[in-house]
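Might I ask for a little of your time on a matter of protein folding? The record follows directly beneath this note:
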Amino acid sequence: MRRRTGRCQTGGVPEVWQVEERTAAASVLHESWPAAESRPVGRRIAVCRPTGDAVVLGSTQSPAVVDAKAAASAGLAVLRRRSGGGAVLVTPEDPVWIDLWVPVGDARWSADVAVAFDWLGATWARALGRLGLDPVEVQGPAPGLCTRWASLVCFGGVGAGEVSLAGRKVVGLAQRRNRNGAWFHTACVRHWDPSPLLDLLDLSPGERAAAYDGLGAAATGVADALGNSAPPGGTTADAVTAALLDELASS
């Protein structure tokens, strides 16, 4: 467990990150976070390790966007998170999935939903910089570049606070809120290939080919971007996680 202590600028809430690892089915990881829900007054980090592959839809997406037969044949669960955005294919190793809880009254809390992502995107950007990635860009409160597939696939467009490398999205963000604070979902891609997800969506052959062409250059992964320049072990899920935790502990 890594902790950073300090005095909160707004007073009353200690600046302490409590870190836990959560290993469970993706549906369980999305449904609830017992530690954050039982102790909402403190900052928390959850390193999420899903036990199997799953297609995770955004809160407003219909299950009909998924080819149910293809998903069943692949043995994949299909679920919906309670935050916005498009579909994501989640596996135990990719993307790197880290959740954060920030309570109301914390120095990092913002009542503005879009502005609330600023500090998190900047932190992810610095973490990627630790791994040697450059140039790293953080999107402001307004949406950035989007492909025509952005409403279907999460990494088809850039939202508030999200992180890109040379114009290609690498970290996706989402959040859900209640009266006690904000629960942030973050996903950092290690290897980007849209085809495994597109093969599971209910698209015509022509639509799938067009989506593949449109999405192929919309995002990238840490390992893709570093290539042969990656340090030994520098693109593993554990290395990416450690970079973010180190940055949170020092900022």
Q: What stands out?
A: The chain has one domain: 17-250. The radius of gyration is 18 Å. The chain has a mean pLDDT of 91. The domain at 17-250 is CATH 3.30.930.10 (BirA Bifunctional Protein; domain 2).
